[in-house]
Write a structure and sequence with these properties.
heterodimer, A: alpha/beta, Rossmann fold, FAD/NAD(P)-binding domain, five-stranded parallel β-sheet, 27 helices, B: alpha+beta, Ubiquitin-like (UB roll), two-stranded antiparallel sheet, 8 helices, about 35% helix, globular
Chain lengths: ~800, ~210
């Protein structure tokens, strides 16, 4: 019976195929493929090894397909070049054979081995083999998670009450997608609001009115009057949205499959510092009202586009535009006015040559000023520094019009908060989902459109709505056809382990982690978490920080990471060093070093990861336990992490590892975090060389039983939820200054951290000692064996006894410590 | 299984530099040559993207009966009994021309200079417009951004001799996910210096600024 027949079809045993690329002459002569093949034939054997001139081209792909079909391979390693360029090609080519994305791994033999080292081809084959073995361990530990098909139910809901909603609703209706439009205002109010929010957009009001009519008439749009938004829960495909009823007395629930939030900004008057008084010096808002009332407006009207002076540079073109439309309106309808627009000469003006010609025709003076001197409002004049010749000028006015201040409205902020965004008051809601999955960009946009997110005029708001609706419609159609699948690598929560500490929610930067059923009355947010598979970017910082290890990154698990590092660490020679490189920076810079013909120490082994944030501290501990003498982690530059905070978390973890290494009596320098960028391969080389030098001076760890025992304790301590919790909450982004509970500053926090680590390290050592000895121990036995202070040890042991971690018994008034009975 | 059956029935036998080779339908001349360890120089060809033959360095001479052509091998599939020459005088001549043009196009590129020198071209008779230029406008970065990454953060601006690589509207754009695939495929390393003009300041982007 062949092995492929003996296994159940659901969980076929891993059967690995390795394809070695020659890449023309770029890998083959530098790395001896014959030696490499021989090395891979040694146990643990692989199902198939083949050398191909170019595995990425059609002839090579045909050979791979033939081998996969003939030998029933279900794990593949392509030892060739950059994964990020070619992985997709292999995925697509092999999709028909039932191989999923995560069952294919690529080892960059070309840029991490062949091109960057000058050594004998047989020696480089050794290096290649070690990297392939690591990848083998990774793939063989992989338990492919089932694909998640997105179950989509219900209409698309366009909530938030912003004007952009009509743009979105019209597009969705046009595409034949069921749409639910909860209305906060009736259409007449809506028009009135548009006049107030989008000042002077005279050309677009008709369009909005037409849109409102179309949406009302459309059979695909279901409009309902509702009160304020109360709560949103669920995930893509299945949301429950709760509104107050219009009278505010009861609650109404709606089901929706997708949500688009259309949110508007609000205008407020300009600050009095800029001269705003409300009668003679007014804002564009007040002028707009005056125009709507029909005047009276006469005399010299000066528009001062003061957004730059008021600290809102983004709004300057919009204010200019509205000032311009108001100015033309004034000249056309109020002949007794003289109009001038005073603007900062450095701002980009939205006026074209046609507008300028029109300005000349209407006698509207467009006056740029030099912003080195702020214009000053005086009683009848405004003085400014003329941009052309830098002379002080003054301009007489009867009515001075300032720009309004723009900010997202209170309603918009409230809605954003309910949607789960951390919002800062006054700041626009412009946020980015993580920039890693372009195919799912639309879901990041799902949340918000409209002027509260990106300052725009009425036309802009409507077209933002339309564009997002277009993408949402495409996604919804795909989901309804049953073709929408969640990505392979996403977080999943074991809800039985979740203790609702909400740390993952804090760490998650893609809004994927949500309460299982939304805030429950009485419980608040105190319900287990789940992950929206369509929002998760698969970065894994959440999984690596969960104190209870309740989160798992599907197809990219901690077990896989551990197996990979263990395989590599065991195979390393004493002078060899391993490291992790982030695919966005460290590993990318390493690829680049190969392409640019740089070279570095061949004793450095780099393992690429999706983000350093997914390296669990346990994995770092495992590398040392399994035989690594040093560990270098190369990630993005601070503040440039593609997943927002992955690098910050890694920083904290490396810090903890340093502390634990000192507790083990080893040098702190054995672990280091470095930063890199794809455009700086030379710096990557410097980093590696420097770390290799440090490691050369430190030398290998003298692994006697004592040190190995301590490293075991280090590894065990990192599993303890208390350590993981304090590590998880330790992340302080640069703008955060508050520390939890009684810790006023970083030093105090660090003190707490050291205390906890010392205690947990001791606990792990005591437990290991008890396991080894297999008998009851006295305090003196423990202190002697571990070489610790007796008083401190007594305290620690007492606490362990209280917590039930050890059993304390008395024999002849002497204390004896032992492992508690029951399962360990 | 099916592929082996196909190859048995539809195999295309032809010759490269006199050596008999076999291809399956869908393979190009370049792919077949590479599979048989026959070297053809290329710049704009990358396995990750659809070939579009912009650099013309991969030209080969083909003879089919009386018909003799010089064609880019990356785009053309072989036919049975075709004779392909990768090192004929005519091919070498065309390659030297191409390299001379490339030397004028991107005079600052070390990679191009090295490649040209390997083919015995050290000087160009064409006018050099920008001595600092490294980009040969092969379009690999544009293609990889579109096909592999799935966004359109890079594009060609202007046309003809004025064609330049730039971002839409010539501003750093938020469509760019900062993956650096364009830098990896660039045959001359020109994008390494330009990446910041595409992706903008990453530190200001994380968590903010999403384009609509």
């Amino acid at each position: 019976m062949s092995p492929t027949q003996s296994v159940k079809p659901e969980t076929p045993a891993p059967r690995l195929g390795v394809f070695l690329c020659e890449c023309g002459t770029r890998i083959a002569p530098g790395v001896d493929h014959t030696v490499l093949t021989q090395l891979l034939d040694e146990p643990p054997g692989v199902g198939h090894v083949e050398t191909l001139p170019f595995s990425c081209l059609r002839p090579g792909l045909a050979r791979i397909k033939a081998a996969v079909a003939a030998k029933g391979l279900n794990r593949l390693i392509i030892a060739g070049c950059e994964s990020r360029l070619l992985h997709k090609k292999f995925e697509q080519a092999l999709e028909g054979l039932g191989l999923a994305e995560t069952q294919i791994d690529m080892v960059n033999l070309r840029d991490h081995v062949a091109r960057v080292h000058s050594a004998a081809p047989a020696e480089l084959a050794q290096k290649g083999a070690k990297l392939i073995r690591a990848s083998q361990a990774w793939l063989e530990t992989l338990k492919p998670a089932p694909r998640i098909r997105i179950d989509y139910q219900g209409p698309v809901m366009v909530l938030g009450g912003g004007v952009a909603a009509y743009g979105a609703a019209q597009e969705l209706a046009g595409q034949g997608v069921d749409t639910l439009l909860p209305l906060t205002y009736d259409p007449a109010e809506e028009m009135q609001r548009a006049h107030q929010l989008y000042l002077g957009d005279y050309h677009s009001y008709d369009r909005l009115e037409r849109l409102i009519g179309e949406v009302e008439a459309s059979p695909n749009v279901n409009q309902t009057r509702v009160g304020s938004l109360l709560q949103v829960s669920g995930k893509f495909g299945d949301y429950t949205v709760t509104f107050a009823s219009p009278d505010g007395q009861s609650r109404v629930d709606f089901k929706a499959g997708a949500i688009i939030a259309a949110l508007d900004w609000e205008h407020v008057h300009q600050l009095p510092e800029l001269g705003h008084g409300g009668t003679r010096v007014v804002c564009q808002i007040e002028l707009n009202e005056l125009i709507q009332q029909g005047g009276p407006i006469e005399g010299r009207v000066i528009f001062w586009i003061n957004d730059l002076d008021a600290g809102q540079p983004f709004a300057a073109p919009l204010s200019m535009k509205s000032a311009w439309t108001m100015a033309t309106h004034l000249r056309e309808n109020f002949p007794a006015t003289q109009v001038a627009i005073l603007y900062d000469s450095t701002m980009p003006t939205p006026l074209g040559s046609f507008d300028r010609a029109r300005a000349r025709e209407l006698g509207i003076a467009l006056t740029p000023y030099d912003n080195h001197v702020h214009p000053t409002v005086k009683n009848e004049y405004i003085s400014y520094n003329r941009a052309t010749d830098r002379t002080e000028q003054d301009l007489a006015w009867d009515l001075l019009v300032l720009s309004p201040r723009r900010a997202p409205g209170a309603e918009a902020l409230k809605t954003a908060k309910i949607l789960g965004l951390e919002v800062k008051e006054e700041a626009f809601l412009d946020r980015s989902p993580q920039m890693v999955r372009p195919d799912q960009v639309v879901l990041g946009e799902k949340l918000m459109v409209g002027s509260a997110c990106q300052p725009c005029d009425l036309r802009g708001a409507l077209s933002q709505g339309r564009r997002v609706a277009e993408k949402t419609a495409a996604l919804v159609k795909k989901a309804l056809a049953g073709d929408l699948y969640a990505p392979q690598v996403i977080s999943t929560v074991d809800q039985s382990k979740c203790t609702v500490c909400t740390l993952c929610r804090e760490v998650c930067d893609c809004l994927a982690i949500q309460p299982v059923s939304g805030p429950v009355e009485g419980l608040g947010h105190n319900v287990p978490r789940m992950v929206d598979p369509m929002l998760c970017t698969g970065e894994g910082t959440c999984a690596a920080s969960c104190p209870e290890m309740a989160l798992t990154l599907a197809n990219c698990t901690r077990a896989q990471h551990e197996a990979r590092v263990a395989a590599l660490a065991r195979s390393l020679a004493p002078d060899e060093v391993m490291g992790f490189g982030c695919q966005w920076s460290g590993a990318a810079a390493a690829d680049q070093a190969g392409l640019r013909g740089l070279s570095y120490n061949r004793r450095f082994y780099l393992l690429p990861v999706r983000c350093l944030g997914q390296i669990d501290p346990v994995v770092m501990g495992r590398t040392f336990l399994e035989g690594a003498n040093g560990l270098l982690l190369i990630g993005c530059n601070p503040e440039e992490c593609h997943h927002s905070y992955g690098i910050d978390h890694t920083w904290s973890r490396v810090w903890v590892l340093k502390k634990l290494l000192s507790l083990c009596g080893l040098e702190r320098e054995r672990i280091a975090l470095a930063h890199s960028d794809i455009t700086q391969p030379d710096r990557f080389v410097t980093t590696v060389e420097s770390f290799m030098k440090t490691m050369a001076t430190l030398g290998p760890i003298q692994r006697d039983a004592e040190i190995q025992g301590r490293l075991q304790a280090l590894y065990d301590a990192l599993h303890v939820s208390r350590v993981r919790w304090v590590l998880g909450v330790s992340l302080r982004r640069p703008w955060e200054s508050a520390y939890p509970s009684h810790m006023p500053n970083p030093a105090a926090y660090d003190h707490t951290l050291t205390e906890i680590l010392t205690e947990e390290f001791f606990r792990a050592r005591v437990k290991n000692l008890m396991r080894q000895q297999g008998k009851l121990l006295q305090l003196s036995d423990i202190t002697q064996a571990l070489g610790v202070d007796e008083v401190q040890a007594h305290e620690y042991l007492k606490d362990m006894g209280y917590e039930g971690l050890i059993a304390i018994s008395f024999v002849n008034r002497n204390r004896f410590y032992g492992l508690p009975s029951g399962p360990q | 299984m099916s592929s082996s059956e196909n190859s048995a029935t539809d195999v295309i036998n032809f010759f490269i530099d006199g050596q008999p080779v076999a291809a399956e339908p869908g393979w190009t001349i370049l792919e077949t040559a590479r599979h048989h360890h026959i070297h053809i120089p290329t710049l704009c060809s990358h396995p990750a993207v659809t070939p579009w033959g912009s650099c013309r360095l991969c030209v080969v001479e083909t003879r089919y009966g009386k018909r003799v052509q010089v064609i880019p091998s990356c785009l053309n599939p072989p036919v049975a009994e075709l004779e392909v020459f990768t090192q004929s005088e005519r091919v070498k001549n065309v390659r030297r021309w191409v390299l001379e043009m490339l030397l004028a196009e991107c005079p600052a590129s070390r990679e191009i200079k090295k490649l040209a020198a390997a083919h015995g071209v050290t000087a160009t008779r064409f006018a050099i417009t920008d001595p600092e230029e490294e980009c040969l406008r092969c379009g690999l970065c544009v293609a990889v951004c579109n096909e592999v990454v799935g966004v359109q953060a890079l594009t060609f601006g202007s046309r003809g001799v004025k064609k330049v690589l730039e971002t839409p509207y010539r501003v750093p754009n938020n469509a760019c996910i900062g993956c650096g695939c364009c830098v990896s495929v660039c045959p001359t390393g020109a994008l390494q210096k330009r990446l910041d003009t595409v992706r903008g300041d990453l530190s200001r982007r994380t968590g903010h600024g999403f384009a609509h």
